[in-house]
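Supplementary Methods. Inverse-folding protocol.

Structures were first reduced to a discrete structure-token string of length 324. This string, shown here, constituted the complete conditioning input.
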């Protein structure tokens, strides 16, 4: 019974977050973790909720990541071509390494800096959720990085059309690449791209989908890198336990849309289910985040995240000037 109470609490808050996301332009995932943090630090939540909250923040998160694989369709690469793929790979690599570099400059926790880079570089909350267990990030770091990345993306919805059309007077294809290559969430890309016109919106969304595809190689690369690090410090049994087996499910699920293994309407339902589970998981994580950690690292993390986003935009504009 205690186990179910904690899960029901996270589900209830998740439903509220999803409902309010219609009116608040932050996205349900961000609202979920913000509500979790506020409630967890405002009210005393009894121990009888703890096991269910922990289950939501860990097990439901793993399930959400597995189901998230249905959002990947490798056929997108054929639509845009190799040149666009190279540009996106360069942009993601630049963003992640910029975040690592800036986190060292400003003496920010390396895991938090890496999560900010991955979130900005690939696909926001989803990428952060898929990689935090691999790198061994703490719940406070996960919660803070999700909140900051989504906050910056919300600003970017309005900022990028201004940059592309007012400052640079870009043609539609250039505007689409700038928006699709820099904003963190699909919803943000759609909102920003279609605010210019449908052509920009559609192309930006395809570019964003190609960025999401890069989550798989990034996840696999991190597994190799952090496995080698742990190999020098941990026992063999620990290494086996620490392997994120949800990644295998994530990759297998990505084969479904790529090879049309399920009808499109079922793929859509699975994708929606994944999103719902992700919101529940973010609530569970938010309920366990301590305000003291946010006060300690929040301003520095926001500064690093903002600088990463600014450099990411500048680099994307440079790629447009060189390749397009």
């Amino acid at each position: 019974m205690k186990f179910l109470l904690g899960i029901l609490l996270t589900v209830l808050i998740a439903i509220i977050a999803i409902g309010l996301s219609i009116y608040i332009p932050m996205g349900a995932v961000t609202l979920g973790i913000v509500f979790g943090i506020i409630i967890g630090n405002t009210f005393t939540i009894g121990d009888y909720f703890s096991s269910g909250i922990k289950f939501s923040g860990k097990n439901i998160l793993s399930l959400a990541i597995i189901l998230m694989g249905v959002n990947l369709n490798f056929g997108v690469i054929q639509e845009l071509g190799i040149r666009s793929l190279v540009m996106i790979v360069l942009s993601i690599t630049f963003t992640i390494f910029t975040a690592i570099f800036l986190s060292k400059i400003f003496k920010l926790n390396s895991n938090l800096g890496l999560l900010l880079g991955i979130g900005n570089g690939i696909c926001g909350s989803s990428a952060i959720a898929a990689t935090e267990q691999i790198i061994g990030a703490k719940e406070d770091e996960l919660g803070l990085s999700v909140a900051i990345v989504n906050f910056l993306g919300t600003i970017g919805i309005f900022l990028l059309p201004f940059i592309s059309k007012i400052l640079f007077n870009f043609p539609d294809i250039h505007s689409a690449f700038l928006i699709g290559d820099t904003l963190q969430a699909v919803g943000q890309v759609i909102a920003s791209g279609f605010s210019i016109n449908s052509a920009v919106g559609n192309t930006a969304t395809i570019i964003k989908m190609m960025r999401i595809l890069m989550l798989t190689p990034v996840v696999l690369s991190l597994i190799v890198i952090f496995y080698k690090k742990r190999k020098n410090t941990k026992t063999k049994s620990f290494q086996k336990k620490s392997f994120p087996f949800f990644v295998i499910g994530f990759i297998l699920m990505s084969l479904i849309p790529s090879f049309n293994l399920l009808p499109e309407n079922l793929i859509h339902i699975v994708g929606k289910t994944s999103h719902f589970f992700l919101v529940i998981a973010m609530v569970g994580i938010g309920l366990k985040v301590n305000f003291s950690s946010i006060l300690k690292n929040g301003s520095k993390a926001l500064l690093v995240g903002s600088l990463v986003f600014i450099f990411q935009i500048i680099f994307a504009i440079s790629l447009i000037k060189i390749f397009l």
